[in-house]
C-alpha cells in the first residue's frame, strides 16, 4: 500500500481495512458506514477513481453492493465521503450553472462560478480538506491520477454540458472549453490557497470574481480559438 492509499487530515492518505466485523464488535449502521468509507478510500487510492467500483468497494468492506448504494447513492457521493468532503462537487457546480443561466440580468456565469467556488473552498467545512487534496494532487503521483479521473468524470463533464455559444459545442470542443476553465479555477485555487500569492490572497471574493470571471465565461461560452483537436470528434470527458 502506497502513501496515496492512506488518508489522514485532508490529504489522500489513510489506514486500509477490510471492513469486516471483528469478533464481538457491534454491526451497527455507523460501523457499516465506516467500513464502506475506509474500503472506498483504499480502493480509490489503489485503482483510481475510474478503476474503483461499487462492487469492489462493497466486497472489500464485507457488505452487499446494494447497501453501498443505499447509504451513498452514487460513486461520486461515496468518493466525497471518503475524502471527507461535506458536499458532492458536481451537484454544487450544476446548481451554480443553473442559477446563473436562469438569472441573465445578474453578473455573468463566469463570475458566479468563481464566487461559488471561492466561497465553498474557503468555508470552514471544506477548506482544510480541499487544501489537503490540492497538495496531494501535486506531490503524489497516485493521488494525482485518482483526482484527475475524478475531476474529469464529474466536474469537467458537468461543465462540458453547457459549453459553447448557446451550449451547442461538439463533445470535443466542450471538452477543450471545460479544460480551459479548469486552468483558471485550479490556478486560482493554487495561487490563493497553496502558494498564497499576496495579490491573490489580498483580493476579496467579489474582486476575484469580477477579474477572473470574464475569462472563465469566455472559455466556457464565448468566442475562442480552438485547436484542431477540438474542432471535431467525440472527445473523452467523462468517458471510460
Q: What layout of secondary structure does this protein have?
A:
Blueprint: H1 29-51, H2 54-61, H3 65-72, H4 75-82, H5 89-102, H6 109-121, H7 127-139, H8 141-160, H9 171-194, H10 198-202, H11 205-221
Task: Explain how this protein is built.
The structure is a single chain. By secondary structure, this protein is mainly α. It folds into 2 domains: 3-82, Orthogonal Bundle (Arc Repressor Mutant, subunit A), CATH 1.10.10; 89-230, Tetracycline Repressor, domain 2. Helix content is 64%, strand content 0%. The protein is built from 11 helices and no strands. The radius of gyration is 19 Å and the shape is globular. It starts with 28 loop residues before the first helix and ends in a 19-residue tail after the last helix. Residues 1-11, 13-26 and 234-240 have low confidence and may be disordered.
Beta content? under 5%
What is the assembly state of the chains in this entry? single chain
Alpha-carbon Rg, integer: 19 Å
**Proportion in helices:** 55-70%
- What sequence of helices (H) and strands (E) makes up the elements? HHHHHHHHHHH
How many distinct folded domains? Answer: 2
Overall pLDDT metric: 86
Structural class call reads mainly alpha
| Record field, number of beta strands | 0
CATH architecture of the largest domain: Orthogonal Bundle
Q: What's the CATH class label of the largest domain?
A: Mainly Alpha
Overall shape:
globular
Give the terminus-to-terminus CA distance.
25 Å
Largest sheet: none
Enter the CATH topology name of the largest domain. Tetracycline Repressor, domain 2
Which stretches are low in confidence, meaning pLDDT under 50 for 5 or more residues running? 1-11, 13-26, 234-240
Helix run count: 11
